[in-house]
Design brief:
This protein is an alpha+beta fold. The chain folds into 3 domains: 9-87 and 97-145, no CATH class; 166-240, no CATH class; 243-320, no CATH class. Helices cover 35% and strands 14% of the residues. The chain contains 11 helices and 6 strands. It has helices spanning 5-12, 45-56, 124-134, 147-153, 187-206, 235-238, 243-262, 266-274, 289-297, 299-306, 315-321; strands at residues 20-28, 34-42, 61-68, 73-82, 112-118, 142-145. Strands 1-2-5-4-3-6 form a 6-stranded mixed beta sheet. Helix 10 (299-306) runs antiparallel to helix 11 (315-321). The longest helix has 20 residues, at 187-206. It starts with a helix and ends in a 9-residue tail after the last helix. It binds zinc ion. Zinc ion binds at residues 165, 167-168, 170.
Length: 330
Amino acid sequence: MQIGLQNALSEKKYQLENFFQLRTLNFIERKGTYVQWTVVYVSDLSNVINEIKHQCHITHARNHLGLDDKGGFLKFCLNVTMDCDSLEQPPVKKKVTIGRERFKDSGVKKVFVIGIVPDIKENYHNVSQLILVAGISSIQFSLGMDIKIANIICWLMAHSSKHPCCWCEVSNDYDINETVIPRRRTLGRICELTTAYKRDVQAAAAAAQKMSPMPQDKMNCINMPLFNLADDLEVMDLAPPKELHLMLCVTTKLYDALSDGMKDDGDDSKRIESEHIIKKGYRGGSMEGSKCTALLKKAMDLEKELLDKYKIRHYGPALQYVPWKKKGHR
Ligand SMILES: [Zn+2]
């Protein structure tokens, strides 16, 4: 707990109260029936962002929206951060004092909830209700969310489908040696494929066909986009993969390969353990961020001192390409 945080929070408790409203909407419950819930939401998002910019002394803002269903609530969250790319000079470093000043604008302690509803399932209908009421089409933003919600928001079918990726049209049996790179998804193409799919379904119903059209023939696009954004906007740009997840996943894979390659040499294989880089046995066997960073910091040393002895030397340079936040770099 930071010194002064409690007082700072009490002081600011009701500062944004007037920006919030309530509205009762229909949502779909787990059993498939409709249920009414009251949503708490920000009625004018642009105004709230202006207020946050004013209070946090942010001149050039970047808005990042998050959608999640953790803690029994489906909610939209907002981070307003300084858009350093649009500044001519890097921002002056804030002098760290107490309470709120110690926290990053992009961190969880500076998240603003802009729309929240309790106890509902994350599906296309429910998410679309929250998107509409939160009025997010009035601002420029990037999106962050877990992959299941990303597929809902990208109007695609679930991860068990033939084309499960929200960023590209890769099929689930794609061979890594194939030379054709899967096409990246754009909002316009999702719209086009969904229209074609719905047209096929209607035609099949009119002709009383026994076999319904397969969503996989239309890259599993089954619902229309809800955001009114440019057709050529790639999903990759709208909702980029989370930096931390990319680092964790790639580093864990490389760590596994390293460990496998060195497992017959007792002394060397213990080297990584002795540096306190130990893989945690939870979350599907993934390493924590701090452990990944510890391994990545040693990538050059590992390449020079250790990997020469094995046929796995290429993992050294590979580790050096993994993106992670080095001190002094953005
Ligand atoms: Zn993909």
